[in-house]
Amino acid sequence: MERPILGITMGDPASIGPEIAAKALAEAHVYAKARPFVLGDARIMEDTLRITKLPLTLHPISKVQEGRFTLGALDVMDFSNVDVAAHRYGKVSAMCGKASVEYIEKAIAMAMAKEIDAVVTGPIHKESINQAGCPHPGHTEIFGALTGTKDYAMMLVGADLRVVHVSTHVSLRQAIERTKKPRVLTVIRLAHRALKALGIAEPKIAVAGLNPHAGEHGLFGDEEIKEIIPAIEEARLEGIAVDGPIAPDTVFGRTRGGLYDIVVCMYHDQGHIPLKTLGFTFDKATQKWTSVAGVNVTLGLPIIRTSVDHGTAFGKAGKGSAAHDSMLDAIEVAVKLAAGRRAGLAA
After folding, report:
1. Other beta carbons within 10 Å of 142
2. Are residues 2 and 142 in the same domain?
3. Domain range holding 284?
4. Which of 36, 181, 270, 287 has CB atoms 3.0–4.6 Å from 265's, for a disulfide?
5. Is the bond leading into 13 cis (omega within 30 degrees of zero)?
């Protein structure tokens, strides 16, 4: 099968995004399975090569057909949208926020036009894009809006755990209000389709409860009885193998043990905390993160979008010490989803 073309957005120019993109594209195995290029500012990427001392040569392009897609040549679709004199690593700015959104917008347009097979996104900063006038709180919402997608969800993928969210970037109060049968059912369906696209023939899905002990039969809340259980029952009628609601304090251990392939979580932190606890390693001695593994996937879109599962890490930006584990993971998942889509499976 022909290697899929991956558009990798540089992320916020003041972040570790340029660095992790360059480091990932200095790995030979990436080119064995994909044809990647970066959407960003060539001057920032050039400075990144100086900082990291990677054995790469910058190759600016204006269209995909100009890409070399070979190890050693860093293909960069150059936007020239960063004022280098005003650029500062590790700083919030409207300039960098605006630039990062422009990379995303172009990548989405290219994917929608089928010029590329998938979009892999670097980290953006919520405050910077807000200062730039972006009305959306994050990547997931931007992709939903620009692709005209109503029903989408965030899936996180780690080494031995997958989670997908009923709600994400809203307050906890709003998350409770959004735990409704139609939405829970939609996310179960999206999870089932995503697992199929990843090559899992018979997906097994766990649904976490919203309340402690999954409500304890109404003792600690009735959302499970009124909203979550009816969604599960309807999904079963559709032939989906799904269990729940399961107490949130045990469902992740069961899933890691192999009983389930994914957990449907009711709100942002319920899913993010266990996955990041497993994928992120902090070293007390150096006061640094030594590993930041994990992938963010937006389900339900007409295009494939994967992303690193970490933020801009402004404290590390411009220093050449950022770990690129998550970027490599995001590329790997994008390749798998592209293969699944070519085989007729929707993600």
Report:
1. 22
2. yes
3. 159-292
4. 270
5. no
Across 105-240, the runs of DSSP E, i.e. the strands, are 118-121, 153-157, 162-165, 204-208
Number of separate domains in the chain: 2
| Tokens at 276, concatenated | 């990041």
Task: Tell whether 110 and 213 lie within a shared domain.
Answer: no
Q: What is the pLDDT of residues 127-176, one digit of tens each?
A: 999 999 999 988 989 999 999 999 999 999 987 899 999 999 899 999 99
pLDDT digits (tens, 9 = 90+) for 73-110: 999 999 999 999 999 999 999 999 999 999 999 999 99
What is the CATH number for 288? 3.40.718.10
Q: Which amino acid would we find at residue 185?
A: L
Tell which of 272, 292, 312 closes a domain. Answer: 292
For residues 288 and 326, membership in a common domain is answered with: no
pLDDT of residue 159: 75
Q: Are residues 174 and 80 in the same domain?
A: no
Tokens encoding 181: 């049968």
Which residue bears the tokens 């069961």? 254
- Number of residues that this document lists for the chain: 347
